[in-house]
Amino acid sequence: MAEMTYLQAISDALRTEMRRDKRVFLMGEDVGVYGGAFKVSLGFQEEFGPWRVLDAPLAETAIVGGCTGAAIMGMRPVAEMQFADFISCAWDQLVTIAAKQRWRANTPVPMVIRLPSGGGFSGGPFHSQNPESSFAHIPGLKCVCPATPEDAKGLLISAIEDPNPVLFFEHKHLYRRIKAEVPEERYTTPIGKARLHREGDDLSVITWGAMVHTAGEAAQKLEAEGVSVEIVDLRTVMPWDRQAVLESVRKTSKVLVLHEDTRTGGFGAEIAATIAEEAFEDLDAPVKRIAAPDTPVPFSPPLEKAFIPQVDDVVAGLRELAEY
Amino acid sequence: MATETAVDVVMPQMGVSVSEGTITRWLKQEGEQVEADEPLLEISTDKVDTEVPSPASGTLTQILVQEGATVDVGTKLAQIGGSAAGGEPAPEESPQEPATAQAAAESAQASSAESATPTAERVEEAHQAPAQASETSEPSGNGKAFVSPVVARIASEHGVDPSSLDGSGKGGRVTKKDILAFVEGGGAEQEAAPAAPAEPQQPPEPAAPQQQAPAQAQAQQQQQQPAAAAPPPQASGVLDQAGETLPGETVEPMTAMRRGIAEHMRRSLDTAAHVTSAIEVDMSRIVAVRAKLKKEYQAAYGVNPTYLAFVAKATVETLRDYPYVNAELRGDSIVTRSFVNIGFAVELQDGKGLIVPVVRNAETMNLLGLAKGIADIAAKARNKQLVPDDVQGGTFTITNPGGYGTFHGTPVISQPQSAILGTYALVKRPWVTQDELGNDVIAIRPIMNITLTYDHRLVDGAYAGRFLKALRERLEGWEGDGG
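Predict the joint structure of the above. Result:
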């Protein structure tokens, strides 16, 4: 075990797979000489050479299109969008080609796209989004959203191994703020399995990504008030672990679905609908959602704080559920 | 009635835009008698100054807001009737008055309807004063009458009337915790205890007056119906509410599945004349054939040809010659079939119950098909993926407790079938047989006990015996690979 930040765990996973498998290569804007905008691939070009750590032009379409082609030909490309927000430029290659190739032609597309996502540092509307729900809606794509360094490493290795296009949403706000023990050896964390972040009896919070930590702080405050909160970290939103969610719902009967993405059509809606369909007779309160309002992410720090769900918002929501 | 029931005096709404008022003078003092509509106090708002008439006749028991104070519209100013402490009369009346629970519900609803934004204080007051507040009797949408889905389910499983419980939720709503605490505590310490023992004896009676009450929502009717429709379990004595617990005892609510099993087991024993016959089968040939097939089936189809599959195959063939074993008594008629829908008892995890999914038209399947059918349906059962069709329409059942080493048992027939086959542990035993010269020798043979438990109303003992003999001959003389 070694203590690693969330960011170091991602680098470690990439390095592990590149050393193990010559088919794995990186492509993205500034990932080579500069080591990546967030320094995830710092030193990679020195170790693996310029042909395995490719600096791409400012053209997300070309990056995703190139990686799709390489994957179809048997390589294991890992693309980096400098910010998750920019993936909209590559929508056509990703959604029209990569996601559907297996259905059209029975050829696997073992590609990973790393998406530094999320807000909390006044990045504004083009550098702060959490677009996972848009892609969870596209059949053929997998969406992974780790919350801890250990899961970031294990899930990235699973994503690289996976024969499908996998979108790896790594939360920028966690990069250097979250530090934990991570096994040094290679391991995989299964895609589609949730993790019980905290066990509790009275209320369930279903969440993922950075919100797992927000929920954790809120749960501590509620504990002081005698309310026991369970937190289910989905880890991957597509496929998502319905069973784990329904088990928690059946236990507590009161649920808060929490995410940083905007509310309408957010993935929380899918979860809430599934709970209503499959666990209706276990509910003791309406399923509650806390999410960002339906606007672009604001630049202004106070506005951004009002936009992204904060610990106090979650505490208020949990209290309301507890009292219901 | 005038002085027995507490009535709240609240700050009236003196105009659409008026949100607060100041008390300028109390015209009556605590302890004085007032008549309904007699001036009680004077108030001043930014629109008007006026007298407030008393909402009821009785003693002015309590003045809560003094002269000179400014309070929001809807704030409770005083109480007429009841006792000074505010909440005492209700619990005293509760056991005697049949309509008390309903009155309390109305009051809780009325209190929360007084103002759009009740403060914490006022909610507390609402709990303390369960009175007939006649001027604000409209029920709100929430509160005590609302029964959440999980509370409705638990209530119907245990035959509890949630409206008889004290709720700790918003507006006095009965929460899951409240009803579980009531059920687990046997209802003994609860205020509503008198209602609980009365219910099992006469289920429809408490239901009727409540269904007529206008304040009771539809939700209650839904919850009443299962309770009223549950006399058979009560008659059988299996599902009485848990009584008082002794130290060291743990009480858990019965799941719907356990309730279903309990009811079915009792009904089956009350219906069929159960008789069990057993036979010993030398499985040498099956063991040999299985060893040969196992690899092939695993490799080619990913299916394990279990002993159960062999027994099932032989049973299905034998049933063709013994139609009454695969039959049903339906009214005054005997129904036999040209098909076999064979149920397999599958245990769920941790003793949480048992379910009997059905492999349909087993007579059309060879050994491979049956082995696969059994494996598929057992997996579906364990993963909770069964649909209603998967557990209906069985004509015969096989139960297989032999995995645990048991060598005999007397299972209960799954109604309305006429028989159930039990298969037990395959054990190597010294067995008297004959060598090629016809001399008796003792050999080591894998022996399986098989039982047939049958409904003696329809199946005679000799008939059952012949069925078992034919089944044994089929298994001992197994021909070919997969049938």
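The first strand of chain B starts at residue 7 and ends at 10.
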